[in-house]
Design a protein that fits this description.
230 residues, globular, mainly alpha, single chain
Length: 230
Amino acid sequence: MDCLLSKEEQQDYNYTSFYRQYGKKYPSAGYGDSFYGWLYMECPKPYNSFGNGSAMRVSPIGWWFDNMEDVLRESKLSAEVTHNSEEGIRGAQAVATAVFLARTEKSKKILSKYISDKFGFNLNLTCNDIKKNYKYEIRCDKTVPEAIICFLESSDYESAIRLAVSLGGDSDTLAAIAGSIAEAFYGEISQIILDETLQRLPDALKQTIESFSKKINQSTFNPRALENNK
């Protein structure tokens, strides 16, 4: 969010510098070993990661741009400064695309078909199918499809989060991805969830969220309900 806002203001626009700035400011946020090492490299280079961090952080791009071409281009840029593997980039592009489609098309059927056709993910499983054999995974290709399926089965924002957590595995990543798509689709997060979450965030992060929300005309602090066309 902060990087995109800086781009809007024609300031320094560099994902590497923003990731490193935030990573060092909040060093105990649970990063993977490779990313943590990257934060403190003298000359940081992409490390060919296929992990799901690129997909977990990408959702603002699906809100910021108004056409698919820009969403795909920018999500690739946001991923490849660290996750420059094919899987790392594909995972980020799929999530940003899902957010974009969720807020513009308002159709789960269209979203599911587009993601399946474009990125080759099998979205025909159910959450119950996944639970039978699922385990902790950090790969994009083992978390992004599962998180999208949680959204597809959901009935509102909270149920998307509950389904994601119920799978087990890398729960915070699954919930971050499923939740970001669900917010874009349903247009609403219950006030109690917002209140409980925001009170746990530093003021600087809350200010960034508020500034970003105003720019995209989506009030995170006072969410509006949108028509839900399933």
